[in-house]
Amino acid sequence: MTDTILVLAEDALSASDVEHVTSLHTDDDVRYRVLVPADTEHNLVESFIDYLSLGYLREAWDAMIGKEPDPVVARQTAGEQLATTVQALADAGVDVVGEVTEDDPLPAVRAIVEAGEAREIVVLTYPHAVEDTFHTDWASKARESLQVPVLHIYLGTSELG
């Protein structure tokens, strides 16, 4: 029987991200289901602190003067990130499907898990100082409310969130 691993990704996965995810299940018959949220909302304070904590002064300034993302552009960007991720996983030889979700992906994650369609969740995000510190990030919320294992990996690294 094929189990489904739910992959929640903030951005397109790199080759090293794909390796990290697929290496977790080398002996299992699994299928990957990728969710990429359309970033249609923008929390100015959190974005500003995140960028400052990483030393990205220009990006911090841009976050403070920026506007809410355009929903059409956000969905298009998420679609491109999803296509890149699905292709990278397929190129790694795994069975994979994917979809774009709303800005808050947790309702979609919850529906999939509650329907019994995922045995575990792998969340890949960039570090977020505020959310990670106060456990309001996607992985922490999923871990807190769903009865499946949740692994949080920072994109582009092998570091766990």
Description:
- 44% of the residues lie in helices and 20% in strands.
- It is an alpha/beta fold and 161 residues long.
- The chain has a single domain (3-40, 71-154), classed as HUPs (Rossmann fold, 3-Layer(aba) Sandwich), CATH 3.40.50.
- The protein is globular, with a radius of gyration of 16 Å.
- The two termini are 30 Å apart.
- The model has no long low-confidence stretch (mean pLDDT 88).
Topology (elements, then pairings):
Blueprint: E1 3-9, H1 15-23, E2 30-37, H2 44-53, H3 57-65, H4 71-91, E3 95-101, H5 106-114, E4 120-125, H6 129-133, H7 138-145, E5 150-154
Parallel strand pairs: 1-2, 1-4, 2-3, 4-5
Helix pairs in contact: 2-3
CATH hierarchy class name: Alpha Beta
Q: What summary fits the major beta sheet?
A: 5 strands, parallel
Reading the helices and strands in chain order gives EHEHHHEHEHHE
Number of domains: 1
Overall shape: it is: globular
Helix content: 40-55%
Detail the poorly predicted runs: none
| CATH architecture annotation name | 3-Layer(aba) Sandwich
Distance between the termini: 30 Å
Question: Which value, in Å, is the CA radius of gyration?
Answer: 16 Å
CATH homologous superfamily placement: HUPs
User: How are the strands of the biggest sheet laid out side by side?
Assistant: 3-2-1-4-5
Mean pLDDT score, rounded? Answer: 88
Strand content is 15-25%
- CATH names the topology as Rossmann fold
